[in-house]
Amino acid sequence: MSFGPPPNTFDPPATLTDSRNSRSSRGRRERLRRALEGFGNVVWMRSPMERHPIYGYRQVSFASWRFEEPSDFLKTKFESLVQDTPTNLEWRFKAARNWMIAPARLVDQAGQGGEFFNEAVVSITEHDQEFCASAEEDLMQILITLEEGGGKS
Fold it and tell me: How many Cα atoms sit within 13 Å of 31 on the Cβ side?
């Protein structure tokens, strides 16, 4: 697993690695948490920063979380919300112990049980910045759909 900048990338301007990027990512994560809380109590959540905090390159976007009380009704609702949101990439909703909304490519590269998830994140992030940009844009569209479609039933 590599932790340096992706190959063949430019040195990012300082504005990409300063605290504004950190605030922007926290803002998206906070919005995501609030949107998910509209469906139920979130007890755990993971969503990467839009840009690497040191090197400034885009990171592949996804959202993963766990509800305190998951339900089949919510699974169906999330599947519909993800399918109904217009996106550039194909996205999937997966529900196991943790629930996840992620680009299909990331899910496929992670393996059937997700055993290669972290490796897939690093590989896509380091080798396909255009994909990461599309995924970031798409996740924002999905977030808007979640905000509009929330509401505990």
Answer: 16
Is 1 a domain residue?
A: no
pLDDT tens digit sequence for 95-109: 999 999 999 999 999
Under the banding of pLDDT at 50, 70 and 90, the label for residue 41 is very high
CA separation for the pair 148, 90 (Å, rounded): 21
Q: What is the pLDDT of residues 51-79, one digit of tens each?
A: 888 888 899 999 999 999 999 999 999 99
By residue range, what is the domain housing residue 101? 14-148
> How many domains would you assign to the chain?
1
8 A C-beta contact, residue 82 and residue 92: yes
Whether residue 75 lies inside any domain: the answer is yes
CB burial readout 106-116, b (16+ within 10 A) else e: bbebbeeebee
For residues 71 and 153, give the distance between their C-alpha atoms in angstroms, rounded to a whole number. 11
Q: Is 136 contained in some domain?
A: yes
Name the amino acid, one letter, at 81: L
H or E element in which residue 67 lies: strand 63-67
pTM for the structure as a whole: 0.81
Residue 45 is assigned to a structural domain of this protein: yes
Taking only the tens place, the pLDDT of each residue in 19-37 is 334 445 568 899 999 999 9
